[in-house]
Specification:
single chain, 416 residues, alpha/beta, Aldehyde Dehydrogenase, Chain A, domain 1, Aldehyde Dehydrogenase, Chain A, domain 2, 2 domains, seven-stranded parallel β-sheet, four-stranded parallel β-sheet, EC 1.2.1.41, Gamma-glutamyl phosphate reductase, Aldehyde_DH_dom
Amino acid sequence: MISIKELGQNGKKASSALLALSSQEKNKVLLKVASDLLKSSAEILYENKKDLEAAKENGITDVMLDRLRLTENRIKSIAEAVKQVSKLEDPIGQVIKGYTNLDGLDIIQKRVPLGVIAMIFESRPNVSVDAFSLAFKTNNAIILRGGKDAIHSNKALVKVIQKSLSDSQVTPLAVQLVEDTSHQFAEELMKASDYIDVLIPRGGSKLIQTVKEKSKVPIIETGTGNVHIYVDESADLDMATKIVINAKTQRPSVCNSAESLVVHEGIAETFLPHLENEITKVHPVEFRADEKAFDIMTDASLANQEDFGTEFLDYIMSVKVVNSVDQAINWINTYTTHHSEAIITKSLESAQQFQNQVDAAAVYVNASTRFTDGFVFGLGAEIGISTQKMHARGPMGLEALTSTKYYINGTGQIRE
């Protein structure tokens, strides 16, 4: 089994080699990767089936199996995302600013690659391809460490990518997969600061907290999603019902699905029973309610304090009744994971206050939180959704995988 040191050394060599690639060359490779993924669908699905069967034997829930599952259509979507990245403007070499200082030095600030990126992630095998495409487009080498539940899928996907790179006379070490999925190996990766320039964890709260505590490599934190929807007193209740149902039930296993419902007391008695009735037509949801909501709802259980801060990733939702938009904002800011939050309202004043005062990477008015996604935001794909405030925030596309560098040109100046 290849060591972390070897992976790191390979990554360093690859990142140096990738600096020579032009935008045209990178885009040509990405289009080949997209084409080869489609041609290799049968092999990829065969390997994915192994992961699905193992997951079922290990008692993984149907909701979490959906995160792991690949289909023909999902592979088409993955390939389409790679194509979209190829069409995006290349940020590398982009001039951010240029000026001449008082000493006559011409100073230009440009975007440059980060270097070697490592990523530790769980389940969803599409992350392997999304992460590679964004890293490659920005001339970064990437080391991927997925979870053991998706190991066969990730091997198959990375194998296709590496062959596409080799066929294009580009180093296949631009993307490497850590095949040892042990916690010990992951922790070694977190300490490989001699080789890795940035580490991106993507997964549940336990994974992210572990990386934050143990990593010696600088990290970009991608967050868990305790996502709230606040239904204001002035809300269109039909709109609110439609949005809550979509945000909770369309795909509950992803980080932008709604986990917490906050409702103004002025409409709670009308809205909550209606929502219960309508959401059951799509999929039953277990509501864990505070005392006020519990007294109103027909089929809810009393929530405990922990429920209000939990990312369920399942057909479960906490419910809180509040008496004002101010209380809603305070409640959300207490329990938010700073991912995505939404207000449903007809009040422009409430909408503006909510967007200005809620501390999250994406704040919606009258729309489902399910839209927080790099592809939807026009980024081609995403390497994760950052919930921190330094370097990058929200869905991370190409620019988030760049740093800057100053180019200074003189005519013999010395500093007196």
